[in-house]
Amino acid sequence: MNEAEVIEICREAVIVMLKVMAPILLAGLVVGITVSLFQTITQIQETALAFIPKMVVIFAMTIWLLPFMLSTLGGFTQTLSDRIVQVGRNTSE
Questions:
Q1: How far apart are CA 16 and CA 77, in angstroms?
Q2: Using H for helix, E for strand and C for coil, what is the string for 75-91?
Q3: Of 18, 35, 46, 80, which is most buried, counting CB atoms within 10 Å of its CB?
Q4: Which of 32, 19, 34, 2 has its CA nearest to residue 69?
Q5: Domain, as residue range, for 28
Q6: pTM of the model
Q7: Which parts of the chain sit beneath pLDDT 70?
């Protein structure tokens, strides 16, 4: 395994991480901005109002996207396992 293959694996790992986490983080960001805007407009400075909606949305998005997240991680794991087997075959020859 050379440096180019290692860099390719790292690049794929970063892409998988972004695919898995980006929707949840974006949902939390949108809810956070919306709640902050609401607090600014109404001048309500309740700290629980900032955290509870974000927690609920992030939990709901995690449950809703769990099948997608598992299939994405499973596919990456399968690809990585196949590459490990290929490296083992190449070194034993």
A1: 10
A2: HHHHHHHHHHHHHHHHH
A3: 35
A4: 19
A5: 21-86
A6: 0.77
A7: 92-93
